[in-house]
Amino acid sequence: MAGASRPRSFICHHVLWDARTRELLRVFNTDGQIENRVDSSSFQGFSIEYASNSKKEKMQGSFGFFQRSCNAIMGAADAVRRFAATGAFGDDNRRTEALVLTIDGMIWTGCTSGLLVQWDGNGNRIQEFQYHPFAVQCLCSFGPRVWVGYASGTVQILDLGGNKLGGWVAHSGPVIEITVGAGYVFTLANHGGIRGWNITSPGPLDSILGSELSGKEFLYTRMENVKMLSGTWNVGQGKASHDSLISWLGSRKDVGIVVVGLQEVEMGAGVLALSAAKETVGLEGSTVGQWWLDMIGKTLDEGSTFERVGSRQLAGLLISVWVRNSLRAHVGDVDAAAVPCGFGRAIGNKGAVGLRLRVYDRIFCFVNCHFAAHLEAVNQRNADFDHVYRTMKFCRSTNVFNAAAGTVLYLFSFCLLAFSIYLFWPVYSSGLPLVLSVAVGSAAAVQMLRGTNVTGEQPAEGMPELSEADLVIFLGDFNYRLDGIAYDEARDIISQRCFDRLRERDQLLREMEAGNVFQGMREAVITFPPTYKFERHKAGLAGYDSAEKKRIPAWCDRVLYRDSRSTLLSGCSLACPVVSSIARYEACMDVIDSDHKPVRCIFNVDIARADDSIRRQELGEILGSNEKIRYMHEELHKIPETIVSSNNIILQNQDTSILRITNKYGKNDAFFEIICERLSFIMGDGQASDHHPRGSFGFPRWLQVTPAAGIIRPNHIAEVSVHHNEFQTKEFVDGVPQDCWCEHNRDTEIILVVKVRGSYTTEARNHRVCVRSLPHG
Fold this sequence. Notes:
By secondary structure, the protein is α+β, with helices and mostly antiparallel strands. The longest helix has 27 residues, at about 405-430. The chain is elongated.
């Protein structure tokens, strides 16, 4: 451990304690501000505000009543937010999960949001950093570096100034512990896996070793191929027959992964409002959604041939992934996400659901979308995609609240739902849509929780998680239409199967070419008829909508993708690990259960991975045979030569002695730490009685060493104050006040050990200093 001598205080979550007296000094939040007690009166605003509105206000027309009702509901939501902000619910994303003391005396804490905060020894907030959106699980400090372990399995390295030096995926599960020893940094995952990483990396050796290893890449590179079926279908609140599912998903020979995205599984005001209420407390799914999962599972022979590894539902949107049993051992780390886009980005009638998984150590993301409808809503559809891409956040567990907070919010959401149905019925009767009327109550709660955190602060925006994936597939009812064409003309072109003429009018292709949407993504050439809109249970191309509205046929249902390639000519390698090609892209025109036709796209995916055992073997040979690398390795592990000014110190009556530590090495910093190795009392017969050390750094209470740890620059001197404290007795033995062991009444001797290390070595050079405290004269 490194830091200030016998540190006066330390941070535990949001509490500052005196390390010696164990007195509570103060309580502060993650922002470093003094924390107040929860004032329950802030929550009472809901009942007071609601009562005043219900007694004083009368309906004066549907619109006025609607407006006042909206205000009442938003007021209720604000009351909940104010109550949560004062501490009743707590900000789960700002909760402190880990802390560590660094060699320079600073304290680092990590939060569930991925935020890292640096404090001084007195609890003052110095600065903060955010390099990863996942929860910090553990922190470790050694020498000039801080290691951070995240719930995603990622490990990052920072210097003492907070600059990110490097990062990598260390484990397939959360990293729960990091420690240093024998020249390695060891990481422990929650599944029990332990891995060791060279303590010098990242460092000056990396570029040389990387160059040497890249020349032998062909020896440890392994190529894998996975066939994948991705299917999308807007089911229009209907249910499919077994034959329809076979027609859609039956072409699965040699397919290893099946991805299914459904839209409009169920709709309606009640469904949307209930879904919104569930989302506030981390719940999702429905009986209708489960019916679809069961039916598709039977179609895929789930259990015998395939295993469902994950699913996610948001109102009418549902996505699920099945993996062939023979491939299951190479697939893991399944995370889910949902982004609502309807009604102020709060309701799931439009939006997206996603799944992320690891396949052969490469990250695959699948996103099922349903964007804004109608011919003219091109800009809104573009905005929906942008919102989904930027804000989709994956997590292992959807239960983001603790039990108490979840129960309160759940009850609040359902009370709000019931209140909305009762309150907005006159509005619905006057002509406003019931979906809007009922869902607005739950929308307030969802917006409160999604749009801002409970303190009202907008969450930090970092790199979109989807951008970090090796393969991203978007599928769904994107709702892009055909521009500048009449219904009859479109029907004629379709009957002639002249799809080139229709593609020229496709809104999605135009917007992609202009760089307005799905930037960097690709789609196979469409060779099937438009999949929307059809009359149910009417076969063939004659089934296109012939009702009064005569909606113009369109390719609403699409599958787009992005792999690791920067250009189409790039081959699969460790530098470009995922390369995809499309074997088939087609619509199932014989399925008549919905007004949309299901679409499927079959991918051939090449995956490059490294055989770690072979790569380690090659690395060992390089370290043993390359003279330059071996010399640099020895230099990095060298312990700087240091001199300590004295090995004997005598103290009495609050004396102070200065111990000087000199770094004589002219190249690298020296890192020192002072601990108490032994405490003994000189008895009357001259014999020493040993006791175990106690207190911070093992120092006795009468001794103060400042600083007890630090950094010495090349050819510089560190001065350490060794001070004899006036010690007040607080314990009584037979009515006589005494301190522990009567330390200040006896001739006491301790051995201080000055441990000196280099930047990258776990071994230390020890200097022993005898400190003797004489009794009061």
